[in-house]
């Protein structure tokens, strides 16, 4: 952790809530809201997947969506290159949009919470831009076991991906969880940050929020001492822990399981400190390199499979096209033959009528001569 990250913050505070989707980001953002921090309105409305509310301001969500669409990056993107792609589309226009919104927000409250899992791709953009407006930015990363996240995402988001198999959906989400945590950890390593375990928050929110307050230099409207009821007690329900963390039910490649478990273990070590641990950070670098190799190999295999499939489909399409052309040519020849037949029949009929007419005229002339 750098000296800058450990210094006492001055001026406005902005807490950027990050972490993989379905990791408890809404829960911590809601808790901060009920403790007196400002969540800019309007916000995303509650739904079945988050009946207590997302506490997610709509403007940052739309802002990140536009950014990721330009970069061709998914919210849950397992490619190690995704972070670079997102950074590459950040220009002066993007910075001006963010600066304008933050300037308006700064007129309302001195302590602001911005929560959107998509922010894992550009946390540095928020720090740089908010810093220009006098904000001290702190990062709060929520951590939930990947097997539990898979269960949650399968429950609420599986139907949004009808074109892939259950296995592909699971692998996609696991890779996104791994990459997202590696990316946000690496990008916030020199900054003031807190990593909170989801289960720790559900079981003892006061202890978690006290550490958040002290690390990020926040001011709450409650002293967080036990023995009295607070609105957060009603908001954080231990029943929110709907999925038990276990790999047993998941059919996923062993390499990815090992990588994901190592990422979780090392991020857990960060959650037990002030967000910084040299040994854990070194271990995360190492597992990040391993993940990059796994993805490189998988992409090569996928490329070969896609190439073979493409060639096969092209050959089938070509053969089918040629067969259809031959069939159409035969049908056309049959049509031409029928036309010729009809033309011949039409010609014979015309000649017969002409011959019959000539016979009638000749007969009439003969009859006329005989009568004369």
Automatic annotation (TrEMBL):
It comes from the Bacteria. This is Sulfotransferase family protein.
